[in-house]
Amino acid sequence: MANITIEPATADRFDDAQHALSGGGDGHGCQCQWWMITNAEWQKTSQEQREGMLRDEIDAGPPPALIAYVDGEAAGWVRIGPRTKQVRIGRTRNFTDASQEPWDDASVWSVSCFVVRKDHRNQGLNAKLLDAAIDYARTSGARVIEAYPLDPDAGKKIPANDLFHGVLSTFEEAGFREVARPKPHLAIVSLDLAG
Fold it and tell me: What pTM was computed for the model?
């Protein structure tokens, strides 16, 4: 049985963050900056620049993500933090037209990105990362967590690289409720932490 631990993405764990973001999918090239900048800014940045942006974000704190370790090796990543800081979410019509939460409310947090290295998939890491993200948001003062998972059961083939949103069933199992369905395969889910 593998030993799985989850830790905040702090400055002393930057190399671990890089390892977690590599090993399959778009994580290494994206550097988990997709939601943090506008599309115009994204088009103008290189992978090296996005890595610098992530380093600056982690160095400044608080931790913008959590890292999953399997037997001491960085194996997965989840971005969790105030939705107001994740600029692209507030510019995505599928979300802005359907969210039930005010867009300027910093107590609304978002889980927006998962990355799991190929060699550590199918071990339930997304569910463990999500559980840790919920705890982290709760202890950090979040009132609500919102997420935008995909539903592979909706009849549309979803490329593996698009699953960085997370999968609907993982969120439902963690207690999130679906609040909107902007597209047949795209849901908005919410978890109230105030109760």
Answer: 0.95
